[in-house]
Amino acid sequence: MNRRYRKTIIAGNWKMNKTLSETRAFAEEIKAVIGKPKWCEVVLCVPFVNIPAAVRMFKECRIAIGAENCHYESAGAYTGEVTAEMLKEVGVKYVIIGHSERRQYYNETDSTVNKKVHAAIEAGLYPIVCVGESLEQRELGVTMELITYQVKAALSGVSADKMRHVVIAYEPIWAIGTGKTATAEQAAEVCEAIRAVIRKLYGARVARAVTIQYGGSMNAKNAAELLAQPDIDGGLIGGASLKVPDFMQIIESANQE
Ligand code: 13P
């Protein structure tokens, strides 16, 4: 983390988990213990149907609500999809774009990721853009090339001025849901490389201000070490964001003065 230049963001990605009543129970539980985190922003990205209620439930404890996806068009015949504007209007602040699960199961490509980043910014949302390599790609030694490509493709056509709204999440696919976290060195190396790519594209000032999160089996035990890396400005947390004690411990690791 480097709070002098950029925001630390701890974001839960609930994926396809929690009904409305389970969301309410989580809200009640966390409200009792969270206080007012001063040094980091806390976000929960929840399933579409629970968003309006979640916005109300979590307002009191200053947890911002994110969506897990959006469409890139502003309206039209796209059965089952949701626009960035619809999300904005119900109180969403962040939207995850290009999560590896969407790339893998729903044909998300670097090109649709780029279109969605533009749509999100246009609607006034903060996109959390996910990039990350598979185990095969890591073993082939192409991690840096791939990440560089994914970052450049995602940000194509995004102006320096708009970069204030963009968050990048480095999520190695082999670390997601596997309990196999990247070591702090591995995560730091890639996050540093991502910042270098942004520096090349936009200059030092923009690069210094961009929040870069790590995601992939981040948990109560390993969060502090990962967040101690200067280029890791937060986490995108799956499994460990579903339980209040675990999520709280990660928030506390980030909320140190
Ligand atoms: P886990 O924390 O469950 O590994 O999931 C990470 C993730 O995919 C967050 O987007």
Folded structure, characterized:
The longest helix has 19 residues, at 184-202. Helices cover 42% and strands 15% of the residues. The protein starts with 8 loop residues before the first strand and ends with a helix. It is globular and about 45 Å long. It is an alpha/beta fold. It has helices spanning 20-31, 51-59, 84-89, 100-105, 110-123, 135-140, 143-155, 184-202, 204-209, 223-227, 244-254; strands at residues 9-13, 41-45, 63-67, 94-97, 126-131, 167-170, 211-215, 234-237. The protein has an eight-stranded parallel β-barrel with strand order 1-2-3-4-5-6-7-8, surrounded by five helices. It has eleven helices and eight strands. The structure holds 1,3-dihydroxyacetonephosphate. 1,3-dihydroxyacetonephosphate binds next to β8.
SSE arrangement:
Blueprint: E1 9-13, H1 20-31, E2 41-45, H2 51-59, E3 63-67, H3 84-89, E4 94-97, H4 100-105, H5 110-123, E5 126-131, H6 135-140, H7 143-155, E6 167-170, H8 184-202, H9 204-209, E7 211-215, H10 223-227, E8 234-237, H11 244-254
Parallel strand pairs: 1-2, 1-8, 2-3, 3-4, 4-5, 5-6, 6-7, 7-8
Characteristic terms for this protein:
single chain, 257 residues, alpha/beta, 8-stranded parallel barrel, globular, binds 1,3-dihydroxyacetonephosphate
Q: What spatial form do the alpha-carbon principal axes imply?
A: globular
What is the helix fraction of residues, given as a range? 40-55%
Annotation field: number of helices: 11
Taking strands numbered 1, 2, ... along the chain, how are they ordered across the largest sheet? 1-2-3-4-5-6-7-8
Mean pLDDT, all residues: 96
